[in-house]
Amino acid sequence: MSFDPIPFNWLEALKHFALVFGSSMVIALVVCLVVGVITRGTKGIIDVFLGVLDFFVQIIHISPRRIWSLSVLTIREALRQKILFVFIIFAVLFMFAGWFLSGTADRPDLQIQSYIDFVLKAISWLVIPIMLLLACWSLPEDIRLRTIHTVVTKPVYRIEIVMGRMLGFTVLGTAILLAMGSVGYVWIKRQAPESVKKAPEIIEENPEESEEESLLVSKVPIYGAITFLDREGAPAVSGINVGDIWMYRSYIEGATKARAIYKFAGIDESDAIKDQLNLQASFEAFRTHKGDMEKGGILYKLTFVNEDKGLRVDSSPMINKEYTENRLKIDRKIEVKNNPDEEVIVYDIFDDLVDKDGNLTIEVACLEAGQLLGMARPDLFVRTPDRPFLVGYSKAILGIWLPMVLVIMLGVTVSCFVKGPVAILTTFTVVMVGFMSKEYMNDILSGQMQASGAIEAWYRLLTHMNSQTELPKGAVSNIITSVDGGIRNFLWLCQQVIPNFGIFSNMREYVIKGFDVSWSAALLPGILTAAAYVLPCLLISFYSLKLRELEAK
Fold first, then answer.
1. Where are the transmembrane segments (predicted)?
2. Cα(258)–Cα(236) distance, integer angstroms
3. Which end of the chain has the smaller Cβ count within 10 Å, N or C?
């Protein structure tokens, strides 16, 4: 994988949400009180608190039956708008997709990745825009045509109208998503030829052997922490930088004491497969000379270390084959014979080499002089028993359902205070920024990207001043600094308010690469992100719809 799954710290996220949401509510309350006092005097203060109390009163008295009835009406309205025509586009895509996605027989893994990527992207690019248009257009159109009067004249709360719309579109989108997901799963299973479903797998311990194994699986990895030793054997922060602009991997030098040390926590016998410890490696080679190209890779070895018992057990030399899955199937019982005259010693990986805390430490050493081996934390992992492909695929579909629900909530919320075209444009902008610009804003605000402010950049451009020269002291410099500071504060506010849709796309990447979607690194942050916008969307929708003039066209 080219990404590093990091467990999500949900406690810190909860604290951050409470801080941002609480601060926003306090600021909104203060603004409302000030406006109320200016417009209505002391009576305005009472009106503000009565309005706040009205939300909680309606929440307590909501009726699930009324909400469901409004949801059914929402679904019927969407069906009358020919929403199911989206299946025609979906069917056309799948009828001709096989013509353009045919891969090569020598890289079946890339072929199956292209199939999965196409299916998941086709589903998300069809479902999410359709639901965005429906959510943004429905309520303003009802207000324009005055059909909403048949609802508001009945004993129905405004909050129930909002919840009915959200629930109705969610149910309809879920049904469409399940249908498309089921068709996509069957298409992948049928489209993948036998060479993709079952491909020969290289076993590093015995290269002459091979076995048939399906590529349509969900691998369940256990990642460890990585540290480095330099060429003298001293601890180092990282390996050697070979000049690659992508700083993802660090390199260890061959035929020296340089090592990459992986420490896997929580390893026990349940992680074994057929009395074997399954490892998978994806190291990258950097050659300072051509070397022996007939071998097909650089030699390296693994050393299992148990510091509690003072054991160091070396594996036999292995060949690192780049751009393939280096499956390392190591027998649970490792036989060690240092000298021909000595007796053979048998070590059990789980009984002897795993320490008392359940940690398995593995050192990686490059054996060839003048060659370097690059690695990152996910480049070596313990591969536990695989799960069916359907498990990971279902989680990827969930990764489409969550942003769909979030888009529906945002669309309905925005449509409560603006008209349809403006609601569509606003929601679309928020989604695009959340998908494409969230990381860019994080880099600017965190200080990782050294860039001047917008006003300072224009000033330097007009005065032909380079970026290394300091701004002249004076009023102009103070004004530029103040304005740029305000822009950064506004950018920070947008960064906090706009949801990070990139979290949901990570689930698709897991399945494309053949991995099961991680709960702590992908599913949990996605679920919490979608859930965090439920209450703010309900609050904004309720007060916007309550203050909006429904008689206006």
1. 17-38, 45-63, 83-101, 122-140, 166-188, 396-414, 420-437, 517-543
2. 9
3. C
CATH class of 202-387: mainly beta
Q: In whole angstroms, what is the distance from residue 348 CA to residue 331 CA?
A: 9
Domain ranges of the chain: 202-387
C-alpha 305/C-alpha 314 separation (Å) is 9
Q: Is 158 exposed, middle or buried (0-12, 13-18, 19+ CB in 10 A)?
A: buried
- The closest alpha carbon to 532, from 503, 499, 488, belongs to 499
CA distance 395 to 509: 11
Q: Which two tokens stand for residue 196?
A: 């993709």
DSSP code string of 401-458: HHHHHHHHHHHHHHHTTS-HHHHHHHHHHHHHHHHHTHHHHHHHHHT-S----HHHHH
- CA 344 vs. chain centroid, Å, equals 48
- CA–CA separation, 515 vs 506, rounded Å? 11
Side by side, which strands form the sheet with 326-331? 217-223, 380-388, 276-281, 326-331
CA distance 51 to 433: 33
Q: Which two tokens stand for residue 389?
A: 């492909």
What is the b/e burial string over 499-510, where b = at least 16 CB atoms within 10 angstroms of the residue's CB? bbbebbbbbbbb
Distance (Å) of CA 506 to CA 196, 372, 403, 474, 526: 24, 31, 12, 48, 9
Answer whether 444's CB lies under 8 Å from 494's CB.
Answer: no
In terms of Cβ atoms closer than 10 Å to its own Cβ (0-12, 13-18, 19+), residue 197 is: middle
| Rounded CA separation 527/545 (Å) | 27
Residue 220, strand partner residues: 384
Q: Using an 8 Å Cβ cutoff, are 497 and 451 in contact? A: no
Backbone phi, psi, residue 335, to 5°: -95, 130
Residues 301, 316: contact at Cβ < 8 Å? Answer: yes
CB atoms within 10 A of CB 497: 13
Q: How far apart are CA 360 and CA 53, in angstroms?
A: 57
Predicted local confidence at residue 520, as pLDDT: 86
Answer for the pair 126, 90: CB distance below 8 angstroms, yes or no: yes
Task: Enumerate residue ranges in the chain where pLDDT < 70.
Answer: 1-3, 94-100, 102-106, 152-153, 193-213, 338-341, 438-440, 443-452, 549-553
pLDDT of the residue at 262:
94
8 Å CB contact between 135 and 39: no
How many Cα atoms within 13 Å fall on the side-chain side of residue 71?
17
Rama region for 498: left / alpha / beta (φ>0; ψ in -120 to 50; rest): beta
CA gap 205, 225 in Å, rounded: 24
What is the DSSP code (8-state) at residue 240? Answer: B
**179-233 confidence digits (pLDDT tens):** 989 988 988 888 775 545 554 444 344 444 444 467 788 899 999 999 999 999 8
